[in-house]
Amino acid sequence: MKDENFLVTGGAGFIGSHLVDRLIREKPRNLVVVDNFFLGKTANLKEAKKAFPELKVYNQDVCNQKEMKKIIEDNRIRVIFDLAVLPLPMSLVQPRLTFEKNVEMTLSMCELLREDAYEKLIHFSSSEVYGSALYDPMDEKHHLGSTTPYAASKAASDLLVQSYGSTYGTYATIVRPFNNYGPRQNDESYAGIIPITIKRIAAGENPIIFGTGEQTRDYTYVTDTAEVTVNIYKNPKTRGKILNVGSGKETSILELVKLIVKHTDCKKPIRFENKRPGDVMRHVADISELKKYCDYSPKVELNEGVKRTVEWYLKKLKTNGGGVTDHEESK
Ligand SMILES: NC(=O)c1ccc[n+]([C@@H]2O[C@H](COP(=O)([O-])OP(=O)(O)OC[C@H]3O[C@@H](n4cnc5c(N)ncnc54)[C@H](O)[C@@H]3O)[C@@H](O)[C@H]2O)c1
After folding, report:
1. From the CB of 13, is ligand 1 less than 6 Å away?
2. Is the pLDDT assigned to residue 247 strictly greater than 50?
């Protein structure tokens, strides 16, 4: 991968910025981020800029195919990691916009691939496309039972990517992560449960769980996802495949929140509120397909990852101050 030219859409976001950090270690010739900064932050790329001052960051809507083509040509991009997205909670209040934009972004990437503007697409899906587990662990053949407009937009995008592969012979791989967590996850509008809970506790409020807390997820520390994404890219046999990325371990939201409570030393009781619409009840990944192609063993287990994440947010809050938002669970 040395001297390769990469572009990361959504590269100023949570997973995207960690992927950029990881790609820098591959010594690329050109490394480009395209993000419209809807949720992305310049601060997420601070370490990347230090390690790789040549990093180019474009404030650009990925839907604009003409401008994207120019960026790709100007930087001789051969490979695109496609992570830009509007988040799940937004789809609950603005379903049409979220669905249209998410699909349009993917369409723009597919069209440019069809036109040979670049060569390889590594597209990010989401385990949300499956809906709640009909069996466990969930493999890539699990029924697509999207329960939110966000999940439907992700499923539609995956089908688009696959259809371009079968119709036009384009090179694409679909990475399908289960829940990610770690530093830099958005903690403002449409934030995820981990940053929200840490912020509540830091502000002296009770941690909140929507529903009973029995709903389960499969958590991966974000740097493990970045690592395996690069490994997936490096193996050409992953072309045309959909690959789950997860830990294979099921954790309830109650267990997760209890871990945050432990690492923040919170004394306030957990408050339970109404279940969120469309909330998936069970999620756990079967990662045997991934292991056929990559030597994958997640390095950061949940307790250690939550500890690191709590430390990171508390340090950030101390430096910046910070309030609590009302939204929950971004994916
Ligand atoms: N975080 C998770 O737990 C999780 C789990 C499964 C899958 N995923 C997938 O991983 C990818 C990255 O997710 P994330 O959690 O880092 O999200 P994120 O919200 O942190 O990052 C997405 C980025 O996309 C940018 N963006 C949105 N619309 C754009 C547009 N029109 N043009 C350019 N940029 C735009 C945002 O500003 C943001 O920086 C997504 O495809 C998501 O579906 C995430």
Report:
1. yes
2. yes
> CA-to-CA distance for 99 and 154, rounded, in angstroms?
8
- Helix (H) or strand (E) segment spanning residue 185: none
Residue nearest to atom 1 of ligand 1 (CA): 331
- State the pLDDT confidence band at 212, using cuts at 50, 70 and 90: very high
Distance CA 278, CA 54 (A): 43
Fold for domain 182-217+249-283+300-320?
A: UDP-galactose 4-epimerase; domain 1 (3.90.25)
Tell me the CA–centroid distance for residue 154 and ligand 1, in Å: 11
Residue nearest to atom 23 of ligand 1 (CA): 10
Q: Are 87 and 185 in contact (CB under 8 A)?
A: no
Residue-level pLDDT at 15 = 98
- DSSP label of 207: P
Could you say which of 3.30.470.10, 3.40.47.10, 3.40.50.10420, 3.40.50.720 is the CATH number of the domain covering 5-180+221-245?
3.40.50.720
Stretch 75-104: mean pLDDT: 98
- 265-312: pLDDT as tens digits: 999 999 999 999 889 999 999 999 999 999 898 999 999 999 999 999
Asked if residue 327 has pLDDT above 90, the reply is no
The C-alpha atoms of residue 178 and residue 109 are separated, in whole angstroms, by 22
Amino acid of residue 8: V
State the closest ligand 1 atom to the C-alpha of 186, by its place in the atom list counted from 1. Answer: 20
